[in-house]
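Chain A, query sequence.
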Amino acid sequence: MTTKSLFNLPQLAGLCSVTAACQTATWSVEESVRRWKRLHYCLQQACLSITARIPAEPIYELKLIYSHHAYLLSELVTAIRKRVSEMREPPLGLDKIPHAALERLMSDTAGMNSRLAFLTSIYEVILPSVQEACQQLASEAHPIADAPSVRIAKLIAFELDDVINVGRSTIQALQAAFAEHRRDSQTGSTAQSNLSDLGDNSLDLAAWSKHLQACLAAAGGLTGKPSSTATDEVTAPAIDEPIPGPYPVGTRFEYCNKPQRDQRFQDSYNAGVNPEAFLYDQRFSAQDKTLMMYYKRIREIDVPETIAAILTELTDKPWDFYREMLRQLWDEARHAMMGEIGFASQGIDWTKIPINFTWSLNLNTQLTPQERHGVLFFIEQGLMTRTGKRYEWEVGLQSHDSLSALFQDFDWADEVLHAQIGQRWYVTQFKSIKEALAYGDGCWSRVMSHWHEYRDNGLTEHHNWWPELYRQACERWGKQPDPAALEFNENYSNSRADLKSL
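Chain A, predicted structure.
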């Protein structure tokens, strides 16, 4: 029997026709949950593997890409977790490995030391397979009975489009750089002499991809099929393909929390300029202070390095902790991009400015993850005062630099969110917020800045780069430099970023 809608309006809320909905279906809650758990596992492991690469990844653009994609994948993971929880699944069982072959796939990806091979695994194999499995789920699930899953599958497939495209563009760019390096080596050119940031390119990517595909085949793809004999998918493959052994590589990836920067970052140990001291000095104009705020923003690339280290080293937290902290990590990466864009808008090459990285370096190498989190919250809470983020936004408005005002407006909003995240996941470990703040302050006070050691060991001279930058900006602005601003010469030798004495 077929039914017609009144006035030929779309049937069944536009999801499908009644005829299509009446088709005999083998779909079930069990099948929906089984597929979601496989996708959840791969997306979650990809998210965590990407996060672990952020601190020691030297290439700035890759730090940003990793920061963005780790956040996006965490949101997709969260959407799946929520859907599974709605389908009679307490406890969820999302911590269980759905198939041994998928474990091999994700374990070998996480342990791959070659950057290009890691990117190939994530963006050419794993995420495209997730996208295909979501598209298949959306087409095979009953469009009415499992409409929430269909919606989520479509959203994930849609969002992965941009992620995969960016990843593939990254791979192509790196391959082009390797090819150019080979040509230069053959011709004796020195144009590409410093390519240490590219890493190793000796791995056979074709063999590596074949191994990854073999892992997927042994699992029956990401969609998989229930085994007719096994009661536990971890102990028996869904099909007859053998599970490959670990991929034979000479050097496996080893997580490192010590931040690395690419060759464009010059004099990164330089702490010869204290931008906070300039920013809060009432003698200086808002326009001049904008330069210091752009510097403070791009310098925030060190915050994702610290948050990524916290998340990688804390392995006993609930998933929502990782999700919210990855949002904060991505926000801080966005703030760094705001600084990059701000300098570009002023015609200033940021690579000529020493972007200091000793905050993340010292925190990551001197404190425990919990102590780092304490310092992070103490700083975030301090930015909620009248002289914090609101003040920076007001400076942006007064400077008549609309880009600065825009960035500081959203920077302020982000930091309010970050303080709330800290309230949920950090403060609750203490008896009071006062105790939580005191702990964070104490941890920060114990961090050795090594200002003098870095200088004495020849790592930097703590050169005052401000006058040169300021003159360049004034020339573009068509104004004479303020003599007082030009003479500014305060550094971090005896104070922290919150101007507290060491």
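The longest helix spans residues 147-187. The two ends are 82 Å apart (CA to CA).
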